[in-house]
Design goal:
With 120 residues, the chain is mainly β. Helices cover 0% and strands 49% of the residues.
């Protein structure tokens, strides 16, 4: 089992940047695929980005390609989401997820979420 704690959310103006962090507990961090999801007000949770256990494989939602970058640091048991060129429509609660399989389709563990608000 793994516990996930997100941080780094906040209020930013459109065009600005934020970096979200997700710290994972446990000694088996390297065996999980990791991902980020968002949930806007009144909307369902949706996929943002994922990264494989080796950091070679990454995937992004079309809406964030070219603006967001996912990465992971095995030594720190942490996954990051660098968000650039933020738009008001990026406003949402962002959740970190982990899976032994494909995190995009079968997330097993979730963090508590961190709020990102982008003002116009």
């Amino acid at each position: 089992q793994v516990q996930l704690v997100e941080s780094g959310g906040g209020l930013v103006q459109a065009g600005g940047s934020l970096r979200l962090s997700c710290a994972a507990s446990g000694r088996t961090f390297g065996t999980y695929t990791m991902g980020w999801f968002l949930q806007g007000p009144g909307k369902e949770r949706e996929f943002v980005a994922s990264i494989g256990w080796s950091s070679i494989s990454t995937a992004y939602a079309d809406s964030v390609k070219g603006r967001f970058t996912i990465s992971r640091d095995g030594a720190k048991n942490t996954v990051y989401l660098q968000m650039n060129s933020l738009k008001p429509e990026d406003t949402a609660v962002y959740y970190c997820a982990a899976s032994h399989g494909v995190v995009r389709t079968t997330p097993e563990y979730w963090g508590q979420g961190t709020q990102v608000t982008v003002s116009s």
